[in-house]
Amino acid sequence: MENKKGFSRLFWNLYTKNILLAIILGVGLVFLVLFWLNKYTRHNQAITVPDVKGQQVEQAETLLAKSKLRFAVIDSVFTKDKAPGAIVDQNPSADARVKENRIIFLTINARAQKKIAVPDMRDNSYRQAVATLESLGFQIVDIVRKPSEYKDLVLDVTYRGQSITNHQELPVGSPLTIIVGSGEPEELTDSIITINEKEETWF
Asked: Which of 37, 46, 171, 182 fits a disulfide with 145 by CB distance 3.0 to 4.6 angstroms?
């Protein structure tokens, strides 16, 4: 009987010890994970993003490096009133609070205006021509109608008074003029002199 009681005490004692050990290990593991996450995410540590708009990339690189930030140029645009190569936009914006080593995405002003090939829009409807050319970034400044059998059909596209050759490259934003048919045939001036008119001139 005493052997049974002793075995029972020993069993429950080991069982209790294992439970307590598991609890202690579990709590310790939780604290260890929280401590690691706190270090990994740099909890409560943030950096103010400096304003680099208007600067050249080289200048911005130095300034961002001092703040322990990285950068990446993701796009370029062309703006006449900005210096070539200057930064025109940044994300996150200036004064934003970010983590150390965060990448700041930059958009710069292109050093040369981008050019695009103008597609041949002859024999297309003028509505389709307008939609296509505007979607490419060109500016439609005028639509001129000329006598033609087919109404609203594109006869020509001009740039500064000159016809555009097929796939000619022009700067984005260039002003274009679309010449379309009016649907009315061209009126010919009558240059025929009647016989009676000729006879009258003989006297």
From this structure: 182
Fold match, 47-109 / 115-181: yes
pTM of the model: 0.48
- On the question of pLDDT at 2 being above 60, the answer is no
Mean pLDDT of 64-85: 89
Rounded distance, CA 57 to CA 90, Å?
Answer: 11
Assigned CATH topology for domain 115-181: Trypsin Inhibitor V; Chain A (3.30.10)
The architecture of the domain spanning 47-109 is 2-Layer Sandwich (3.30)
HSE, side-chain direction, 13 A CA sphere, residue 104:
33
Look at residue 108 and tell me whether its pLDDT is greater than 70.
yes
Q: Would you kindly state where each structural domain of the chain is located, as residue ranges?
A: 1-43, 47-109, 115-181
Amino acid at 70: R
